Target: Methyltransferase domain-containing protein
Amino acid sequence: MSYPSIITQEGAVERNVEPIIEALSPLLDGIDNGHIMELGSGSYKHIEAFAKKWENVRWWGTVRNEIEQEIAGDRLEKENVRLNNLHEPRIVDISNQRHWDEIYIAVRHGVAKQFSGFIMINLIHCCPIDYSEKVFKSLSPRSTLDPKILNPSKGWIVAYGPWLNDDGSYKSDQDEKFDREYIKSKSPLLGLRSIKSISDIASKWGFVEEQRKQLPKGNMFAVWRVKSP
Model:
């Protein structure tokens, strides 16, 4: 692995899960038997809450290696989490083409339905920028794959977390400290991004920025939607 994991700060899930659920509601309410995948599910606490909120949606969570898979699995086992609509942690390193191929195979053979959406919580700044592009490229409506992994007419990708301003400046002194001392200290490949920088990448692969929503603690919820023909 070419970059380290960024461990979610203690108590962060408990603080942000309800605001994220509220922001997701317009995208998810009304979806019946849809499939949603979260990239970088960590401890599985967020996706567990999502599965409990939207019981008519099938939730696919991912971790990037066997260590994270064991941590998430142990927590689910210890806390006796058994939800019919929540799949066990699946290993997906977003930089690994083989893992994207495996998702495609799951869709092609009916193990999973074509996905309605993908969710990334505190992931964009926790991976090198070219890996972020890998996400949009792999889910692009312009892909030659058939069927597409993501619904090519109305699929969406969500990212939540702290962001830079569009001009690359920090939104607050707190964000600058968090970026320099907590994220970039782990690896120079990491660091906060601007939503604009991600939208520029997304547009290359057939997505348009649809929404930005301010959430507590300076975090932003951003939505990219498949661009209409």
User: Anything to note?
Assistant: The chain has one domain: 12-226. The mean pLDDT is 92.
